[in-house]
Design a protein that fits this description.
296 residues, 2 strands, 1% strand, binds geranylgeranyl diphosphate
Length: 296
Amino acid sequence: MDIKKELQQRANDIDNALDTLLPKESTPQEIIFKSMRYSIFAGGKRLRPILVLASCEFVGGNTKSAMPYACAMEMIHTYSLIHDDLPSMDNDDYRRGKLTNHKIFGEAMAILAGDGLLNLAYETMLKTGINDNTNLEQKFKAINEIASGSGVIGMIGGQVVDILSENKAIDSETLHFIHSNKTAALIIASIRAGAIVGGATEEELDDLTKFAKYIGYGFQITDDILDVIGDEEKLGKKIGSDVQNNKSTYTSLYGLEAAQQKVDELFIKGVEAIEKYGKKADFLIHLAKYLVKRDY
Ligand code: GRG
């Protein structure tokens, strides 16, 4: 499978759907539409929406009906990046190879653009039930996965502990909490939401959840590794920011080699969770490899 070509095609479909969902009218608040679009179309890899669609496909669902959830996930992910880059958080100048949102539009507009994307995500998902009132339970469950995975017991919770841990030596439990919530929770929510709207059985949902936990955690450890040895041009942001912000990471706690071994171990466990499904699992396994090995 040519995974890069496959990912590009899926990312193009997601981009087209996002373009129809994001406002662009010439109204008095036009600037916020520009700000939201600036970050949404700044060159993200669309990994989370691709996961939503892939898990829907895996359980035999119709990927068209999962597209609004995929787009909502990308909106939430992008809002989190805009807010994470703010001076009061990580204070980053570059993201996705371009100046960060607040560097172009100012801090107030960047905060509002993040808020706008978050609201639009829920509007987009709720409209799926308003426009077609079949399978409402699945729709509510999928929205709930995304709301909780990105909320205070998920991504935001992880970000809180991450901020509290700056300039401190943290233990492995705290690091695990941060990684599982700040990063893995959105990956898990993407995979579970896609599977739910696709009509997954209990067993499929359990297996996909195990897969998601291993891959989500591996994805963040890889991020820690890349912050030490990554290529700035490929990553589209400066490396070394964890050291600069005095953040404990998997590599600072255990070293590069152990981090690499952990990623390999998590990838193998992730594959084991779904390989019994045979060919059906092919794309998710290729995608997992790409996610944790980050061969961009
Ligand atoms: C501000 C509420 C709030 C949360 C911020 C997601 C997050 C929490 C912070 C972003 C910083 C960071 C290192 C997150 C880890 C997850 C991660 C590796 C994000 C980058 O994801 P990619 O590689 O990015 O999928 P693209 O740009 O391709 O979408």
